[in-house]
Amino acid sequence: MALREILTVPNPVLKQVSTPVAAVDDDLRLLMDDMLETMYAAPGIGLAAIQVGVPKQVIVMDLARQDEPPQPRYFVNPEILWASEETAPYEEGCLSVPEVYDEVDRPARVKLRYLDYHGQEVVEDAEGLFAVCIQHEMDHLKGVLFIDHLSRLKRERAVARVRKLARTG
Question: Which residues pair with 89 in a beta bridge?
């Protein structure tokens, strides 16, 4: 396993639309293992492959609390089958937009389908933090960042802040 560089705004790669994965094989599992290690080191709770420069529909996530053992999750070619009309606000952050947090409204519950680490199809319901995180990460697969849900002014301020952080180290 290896740590990979996490791309930050305004890197244009983050705006690319990711392509579906043909099959879950050893190379893809290696990518997912690297992504998970990178996410833990950042630290974060979710990471899409495009954030490490790989435009494939792959997400890793771990929503375990600090006092719980790790609970890594893997999502290949995820798709939302249903989303509730009810929305819920949640303060989001993103490893590609470091040190920026803002509230985003998303559907409170979703039903999704994806392939797991072994290529098995899974259909499950998500709510709470899981629903927020999976929708946030799936946005990345479409070239959408959480700041794209904010006003133009807030988005521009977020990008300016990340640029300043990059300059100052």
Answer: 105
In angstroms, the CA 95 to CA 116 distance is 23
**If you write DSSP's letter for every residue of 41-52 in order, what string do you get?**
HTT-SEEEGGGG
pTM across the whole model:
0.95
- Of 68, 99, 103, 137, which residue is the catalytic one? 137
Distance CA 53, CA 48 (A): 9
AA letter at 76: V
Residue 156 known to be catalytic? no
Residues 75, 32: contact at Cβ < 8 Å?
Answer: no
| CA-closest candidate to residue 24, choices 114, 151, 138 | 114
pLDDT tens-digit map of 84-117:
999 999 999 999 999 999 999 999 999 999 999 9
